[in-house]
Amino acid sequence: MSVNFSQLFKEKSKFLDIKVILVIAVLIICLVITKLWSVAPQLSARDFLPLNTSFFYEWTSQKSLTDNLPPQLIIFDDQLPMEKADFLRQNLGDLFDNLQEAIWFKVAGSEEDNYLVKFSKLSSKSFKNWHEKHPEVIYYQPSDNILMLTDSVELINSIKGKIIGHFTVNHLSKGINIYWQLNQPPDFLYNFSSFLAYSSENPEIFMNIQSVGQKQNKVNLFQINNQPLDIEQNVLFKIPSDFDLAIGFNASSTESLSNFLNKNLLIPIYDGLPYYNLSNQKISQYFLGDNIIFQDDDGWLMINQEDYQQKTLDLADSFEVQEINKVLPDGTAYTELIASQEQTIVEHEFADQKYWQIDGLFGIQLENYYYLSNRQYLIEDLITSDKKINNLWADCLDNSSYRVRDFIFWPTDKLPDIPIKAYLEENNLQSLDIFSYYNSAITGLQWCF
Q1: What's the mean pLDDT in 344-372?
Q2: d(C-alpha 432, C-alpha 380), whole Å
Q3: Confidence of residue 273 (pLDDT cuts 50, 70, 90)
Q4: Domain match, 280 and 378 both
Q5: What is the extent of the structural domain holding 140?
Q6: In sequence order, what are the residues at sequence separation of 6 or more whose Cβ sits closer than 8 angstroms to the Cβ of residue 6?
């Protein structure tokens, strides 16, 4: 019996060709599915908040809904939000186990409560079982794993078939997010809102609250800019390695913010310090201008981009004086003592770095920044320090796009006896760390403790 190897080879080749075609087809299908999956939008419950939303309270995870806020983060009456969380737990039943995100919200012109909830998965069977137990609930399912619970058919019709995507700027995916109008705050936010200055042109405000372990809590307040802002990168200049407190204010900060901080924080604090030696006028001039001030016991160090040698006469305790003879309008002669413009400048050197002294003040230029202090050891500590300004907020501000504008870094035990110190002590908070920041889209204020 003879075997036709040529024919056998042809048949085998055809079989191999079919296998190759099948493999290629499977690969193409996999690539298409992967592509479709990768471009499918990862929708959030907030993507379906109506444009006329006047308030929302978002729990970004099941944990943030089930866990009560730690005492130090209760900066408003949280009784009502807790009641809404209980409502969701009770009404979602078995669906609650797969809850990923929940939003309680209201729309303009209505006091009705509405909810958006997102689940990690929402099978048709579990949804059917839930609906059979709650036939009275009016709902809309805008996405496979998202439900809107509301008594308003009109509200459902207004968003049906749409992805709104209005509340996406600077959305934070941890903790609790709150949005409201400062001129029409919800009752539970009324007292808190009264402390916040705002412009009638932009009453909308967002707040994020989150607890990061036992030693780090964050409260972030921000507004969306009416117009995009040009931003500069944070300039990293040297700061002392050891100090008690630090304050920095930018001259371009809003007048309302500057006045609020000056009246409610700076003057009360400095009026209570036993070593206070700067007048209220100088607080406004130096603290609320383009200056950064570090304090260590009774020593202070100021940082600016202008040469301090020309300003030392404003701050020096004593100087060489000149006698100027003058005459009053009524003819009375008198002698006026004025500071001599030719003060003695003493040069010092430490760690191969030169710095100067005028009277009891010491100054140095490092790169493009000027430093002035009333204590020599602060200048010498600065020279050998490896700390940069961003060390102050490295543990507080997560977003590298934020440009820090103002900040307060103040340990609790260094504060005088003012109301905010009592609050910090009662909640075992070690320091008062506040940073105002901005980027091209938002302007905000973050408090870390």
Answers
A1: 91
A2: 27
A3: very low
A4: yes
A5: 45-224
A6: none
pLDDT tens column, 392-421? 888 787 766 778 888 888 888 877 677 677
Phi and psi angles of residue 374, each rounded to the nearest 5 degrees, phi first? -95, 5
In 40-189, alpha helices (H) = 62-66, 79-92, 124-133, 153-159
Positive or negative torsion for Cα 262, 267, 273, 276: positive
* Model confidence, pTM: 0.76
Query: Are residues 100 and 61 in contact, defined by beta-carbon separation less than 8 angstroms?
Result: yes
What pLDDT is recorded for position 267?
Answer: 63
pLDDT at position 38, please?
A: 40
Number of domains making up the chain: 2
Instruction: Determine phi and psi for 417, rounding to 5 degrees.
Output: -80, 85
Q: Which two tokens stand for residue 411?
A: 């340990």
In a domain, 353, yes or no: no
- Asked whether residue 54 is domain-assigned, the answer is yes
| Nearby residues of 322 by Cβ (< 8 Å), 6 or more positions away | 337, 338, 339, 340
Domain shared by 107 and 178, yes or no: yes
Radius of gyration of the chain (CA): 32
Tokens of 50: 């109506």
108: CB partners within 8 A, 6+ apart: 52, 53, 54
Cα–Cα distance measured from residue 10 to residue 61, given in angstroms and rounded to the nearest whole number: 62
Q: Do 189 and 258 belong to one domain?
A: no
Under 8 Å between Cβ of 66 and 92: no
Q: How would you classify the pairing of strands 217-224 and 442-448?
A: antiparallel
How far is residue 357's CA from residue 366's CA, in Å, rounded to a whole number? 15
Residues 64-96 have pLDDT tens digits of 988 888 777 788 888 999 999 999 998 898 899
* 117, amino acid identity: V
Return the top range by mean pLDDT from 22-31, 279-288, 437-446. Answer: 437-446
Q: What's the helix, strand, coil split of the chain in %, to 5?
A: 35, 30, 35
Q: Are residues 112 and 143 in the same domain?
A: yes
